[in-house]
Specification:
homodimer, 298 residues, alpha+beta, Phosphorylase Kinase, domain 1, HIT family, subunit A, 2 domains, six-stranded antiparallel beta sheet, four-stranded antiparallel beta sheet, 8 helices, globular
Chain lengths: 298, 298
């Protein structure tokens, strides 16, 4: 076919009219734009291309530099590269439906400050009223689902748990290992419910979880990041095991709590997570954020 | 000075000879290259810049597209953009020492468990023996360098600090905002040196830093992630301000400590960071990891 030779395609985007930026990532150098191509709805996705080792020599000789800053042995420049060495991958979805547009839309998050009191008066009533279903978790615990995926089980009703791969992990390589430990106890919603009473449970998960990962995946405990989320995405206590060095979604300091720290905090103060102010991000469309706003806490 | 006007700088990289690629990231569009500039060792870091909404119109009209694939409503292109709309941020470290080269080399990390005792017997002696230079930090504090980059200053010798953009941030968009607050006090190495005595300093940085970001960048405090690193990359106390939602390197729970948590911990226990076991990743080639191994702590 005429791939790369269609003269019409050369400037197709010059008639594109931007309506709104759906999302972008400064880190990944991507942008998702909604707009119109002629009279049709369209989504245009731009992503800068990775820098290839093979292009370096040409890039260094063929580019111009503009000095920005110099301090001691460090200097920074803006480099103007030849366009063919610095392409932008472009995807056009046209005509795009409402569903495409929603799919690419990002929501801003805000950091919420939740005191122990806020938890009792705002968060807990909200969780209870929503009564988020954890039926799928119970199905796993009862072996009605995903039984063949279980990596390890300690069946003890008090300190026991199931360990299994997270959905996000395809299990093809250990580089992005992601496992979840789900406790057998059914009445622990989150970090906020933990007291020193739960130390045997937490220590058991930490110890046996690390042993199971070593046994099954030959990955040492020192290569693991073991943590809880607050807020969690479902209110049945679970612990994340991810490979250190893999930047798993949700491993940021604003949402993750190292299990080792949780244990230490409960050892020095049995009521630590009942009384502490906790910080976490909530998306603009999260119902809980609305509750914090109503309460004048944001 | 001659910032941006030095004609020599325009083609400084055309004489750069690549020895090896230290690391790269296809996701982040970065590459770290070791080589020689003349007869000096140098590290060159290239990072493609985020795509700015403000540039879209010009990008769409001023670029050429090459069709790669067309399937139903989806098509992909390679976009050739005008160089000034598609810069590559370039950092040159020259002359670079062995330590710089190591710093940028991709390495597996291990999670280290450092008790208060380990800090005194292993980490502190190591830091003191290495006597890492923080001359560049002193240059900033004394306005001998980067004075024009200062976003905010509180000159108080006890609780004062300078706020300025991190090298990694090109300041073109607020999406990946990254600022560093550097304290005027010169004898605080890291989190481990903090006690309740430093609460006025920490609270001052937290409060005035957030105000300065709001004033300068119209970004509310609830959109910020404010944290310290342990281990830090240099032993002069500094605090990171990054935009929530931007997955800044080093914002993972294994290395970052929310300033709000640090303040709260010191309020409830003045010696918290002297006595606590802290967890952090160390790269395989980090001298400190060797010390922990020698001590049988790993």
């Amino acid at each position: 076919g005429g791939v790369g030779k269609d003269p019409e395609s050369e400037h197709i985007l010059s008639e594109f009219k931007t309506s709104t930026v759906l999302s972008d990532s400064a880190r990944e150098k991507t942008i998702f734009v909604h707009g119109k191509l002629g009279d049709q709805e369209a989504v245009v996705i731009l992503e800068k291309t990775p820098i290839r080792e093979d292009d370096l020599a040409e890039l260094f000789t063929g580019s111009r530099l503009k000095l920005e800053m110099r301090n001691d042995i460090y200097s920074t420049y803006r480099l103007l590269a030849p366009p063919q060495l610095n392409e932008i991958k472009t995807t056009v979805v046209c005509p795009a439906t409402e569903k495409h547009i929603k799919k690419y839309q990002r929501q801003e998050s805000s950091l919420v400050e939740e005191t122990g009191e806020d938890y009792k008066s705002i968060t807990l009533p909200y969780i209870q009223k929503q009564s988020f279903s954890v039926q799928w978790v119970h199905n796993i615990l009862e072996k009605k689902a995903e039984a063949e995926r279980i990596v390890y089980e300690d069946p003890d009703p008090e300190v026991g748990f199931l360990l299994l791969p997270d959905f996000k992990w395809d299990q093809k390589q250990v580089d992005d290992l992601y496992l979840i430990a789900i406790v057998h106890q059914r009445d622990i919603r989150s970090l906020r419910d933990l007291t020193s009473e739960h130390l045997p449970l937490l220590q058991n998960i930490f110890q046996k979880g690390k042993e199971a990962v070593l046994q099954r995946y030959s990955l040492a405990a020192s290569k693991l990041r073991v943590y809880l989320h607050y807020q969690p995405s479902y209110y049945h206590l679970h612990v994340h095991f991810t490979k250190l060095g893999y930047e798993a979604p949700g491993c940021g300091v604003e949402r993750a709590h190292l299990l080792a720290d949780v244990i230490q905090n409960l050892q020095s103060d049995p009521q630590y997570y009942k009384t502490r102010t906790l910080y976490f991000p909530l998306r603009a469309d999260d119902g809980l954020l609305g509750k914090f706003k109503e309460a004048g806490r944001l």
